[in-house]
Write a structure and sequence with these properties.
Order of helices and strands: HHHEHEEEH
Strand content: 5-15%
Structural class: alpha+beta
Number of domains: 1
Radius of gyration: 36 Å
Number of strands: 4
Strand order of the largest sheet: 1-2-3-4
Helix content: 40-55%
Distance between the termini: 78 Å
Number of helices: 5
Length: 254
């Protein structure tokens, strides 16, 4: 959350620098190219008019670079330099932020796999997945990990640390102590407690593994916008595939 705010501030400042420089240069250009006021020649005789005209022509010939042109060039150079610097800073920041997002998404994937591994170890030892003793085996709305874990009477932290490395595990951008737990890791028990699904939100929605799960899996939208999932069925099949057994032929009766 804090990172998103910093991103918006830096992008806004970079855009403001470019916009202000553009306005200043355009304004100065318009002011410097105003048509100069012509002298009133109505009360002068032809000889005086000719003399003034000659003086203006001589002044234009001797003045190689007008002072206004020099100022305008300096302004133009300053504008170009400031815009280039702003673009470089903005590009560097966006590249750096993209790297941070990629790193956080990799951690989210690893976290859900770590949780799934631990829950499967829990199942192998206790013949059930972690569930609540107070509200029954199924909690339809899903459980935010770890903020709602103890509230719903799931196994306490000391028990979970025996099965899940690094417990409690939570989204790298969401503090479990905060009141807003939108997009926090969520745990669903399925099939009467014989299976589970874990969900996380990947920041990079273009990630090849990102897919919207709210609608097909009926995950309430108020819990979060979930586009990454680890399922106990798929996970266990991937880790311990079942051997396919071919049917044996029976000997014909004698």
């Amino acid at each position: 959350m804090e990172t998103d705010n910093k991103s918006k501030i830096i992008i806004t400042l970079a855009g403001a620098v470019i916009f202000i420089n553009f306005i200043v240069v355009i304004t100065y250009f318009l002011l410097s190219t105003r048509t100069p006021t012509k002298p009133d020649l109505s009360n002068l005789n032809p000889e005086q008019i000719e003399e003034i005209t000659k003086q203006q022509l001589d002044s234009q010939k001797t003045q190689i670079v007008p002072e206004e042109d020099i100022k305008l060039k300096f302004f133009a150079i300053g504008f170009i330099v400031s815009v280039v610097v702003a673009i470089i800073i903005l590009g560097w920041f966006l590249f750096k932020e993209e790297g941070k997002i990629r790193k956080r998404d990799l951690k989210r994937k690893a976290d859900l796999n770590t949780l799934a591994n631990g829950f499967i170890r829990f199942f192998k030892e206790l013949e059930k997945f972690p569930s609540t003793s107070e509200f029954g085996a199924i909690v339809p709305e899903g459980i935010k990990i770890p903020s709602e874990w103890n509230f719903y009477g799931f196994p306490d932290n000391d028990v979970m640390r025996r099965y899940v490395l690094g417990w409690p595990i939570f989204d790298p951008l969401i503090n479990p102590a905060d009141s807003n737990q939108f997009n926090q890791y969520v745990y669903f028990l399925r099939q009467g407690g014989l299976a589970f699904d874990l969900y996380a939100h990947l920041e990079n929605e273009r990630d090849p593994e990102a897919k919207n799960y709210n609608i097909p899996d009926k995950v309430p939208p108020e819990l979060g916008d979930y586009n990454f999932k680890v399922s106990s069925i798929n996970f266990r099949t991937k880790q311990t595939p079942r051997a396919s057994v071919s049917p044996q032929k029976t000997a014909p009766p004698v």
